């Protein structure tokens, strides 16, 4: 196993808004609605607070890429925008689920659930909240979990509709001359919301039914590589489980991918060969016996990750600890620093 050192560890209940496109500032926030700007050495400095009526769930808050503005979902499911003084600048009534600033920050994408089977995609001007575009979209599964994500170097975004065993659909949403348009990216297959190469030319994703990885070009969405079904022999059920993919994915600038398995451990993955290169972890956060994380699994010999999730915020990669830590830890590292460290490890002579 390769061990790396994070550039910074933040201990406390900090959260962040994932983003593929880079911006001049990276902001984290806490459960008290205070926001912190990260300086060049990733030390947080308090920058104010956001309007404090939002539940702060995943994808319920998005930051402007270069201004002290936030878009958020409030407790009554209305959406709004505010600045870092805690002011509410404008709001819209509805049953909003997720929001996302556009690449340049001039627009705010949002999804309003009209009922279990119908959604309304609305795009508002971020300055005054006037409506720019809207589109009604059917939820094919009914009451799906929803997530908006930006696309590197593009003004389009993706919307994932996830319903577990019932299915998953991912749509590309874009603004064209004739208005707001949608395109189902993977019809007839259950690919997850993808990890994007930083230049936006390719995407990497997992087919949820077959549990195999795939790589596509963008915007053509041509299938470049797909992992074959694993029909290998395993010594026991734990070794087989170790090879099951998890949902965490980060597509890196050097063409490799960070993946997770079902025990949330991290691996280097080559999308050209569709094979794992090796396992890695952060020093001090190495995998532990599953029974340490889940005491009821006292006869389970497998190892479980101390880190639960990984996300990209521009060029910054953020990893968050799971239930093993009463107070969460955020581990931060710039992508360039991670690639330099892993490159030196892989080329270091052995012996």
TrEMBL record:
Question: Can you say what this protein is called?
Answer: WD40 repeat domain-containing protein
* Organism of provenance: Paenibacillus tritici
């Amino acid at each position: 196993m390769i061990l790396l050192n994070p550039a910074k560890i933040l201990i406390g209940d900090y959260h962040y808004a994932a983003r593929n496109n880079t911006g001049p500032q990276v902001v984290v926030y806490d459960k008290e609605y205070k926001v912190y700007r990260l300086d060049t050495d990733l030390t947080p400095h308090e920058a104010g607070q956001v309007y404090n009526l939002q539940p702060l769930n995943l994808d319920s808050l998005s930051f402007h890429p270069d201004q002290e503005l936030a878009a958020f979902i409030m407790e009554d499911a209305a959406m709004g925008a505010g600045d870092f003084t805690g002011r509410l600048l404008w709001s819209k009534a509805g049953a909003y689920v997720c929001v996302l600033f556009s690449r340049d920050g001039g627009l705010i994408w949002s999804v309003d659930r009209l009922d279990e089977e119908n959604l309304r995609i609305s795009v508002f001007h971020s300055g005054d909240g006037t409506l720019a575009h809207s589109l009604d979209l059917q939820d094919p599964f009914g009451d799906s979990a929803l997530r908006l994500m930006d696309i590197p170097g593009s003004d389009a975004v993706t919307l994932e509709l996830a319903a577990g065993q019932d299915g998953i659909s991912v749509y590309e949403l874009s603004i064209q001359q004739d208005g707001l348009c949608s395109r189902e990216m993977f019809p007839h297959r259950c690919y997850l919301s993808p990890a994007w190469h930083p230049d936006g030319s390719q995407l990497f994703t997992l087919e949820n039914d077959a549990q195999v990885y795939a790589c596509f070009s963008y915007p053509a969405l041509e299938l470049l590589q797909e992992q074959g079904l694993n029909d290998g022999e395993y010594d026991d059920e734990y070794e087989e489980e170790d090879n099951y993919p998890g949902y965490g994915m980060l597509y890196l600038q050097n063409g490799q991918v960070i993946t997770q398995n079902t025990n949330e451990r991290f691996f280097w993955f080559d999308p050209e060969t569709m094979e794992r290169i090796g396992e890695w972890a952060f020093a001090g956060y190495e995998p532990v016996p599953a029974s340490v994380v889940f005491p009821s699994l006292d006869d389970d010999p497998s190892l479980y990750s101390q880190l639960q999730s990984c996300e990209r915020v521009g060029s910054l990669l953020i990893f968050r600890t799971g239930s093993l830590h009463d107070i969460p830890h955020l581990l931060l590292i710039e992508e360039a620093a991670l690639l330099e460290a892993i490159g030196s490890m892989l080329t270091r002579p052995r012996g």
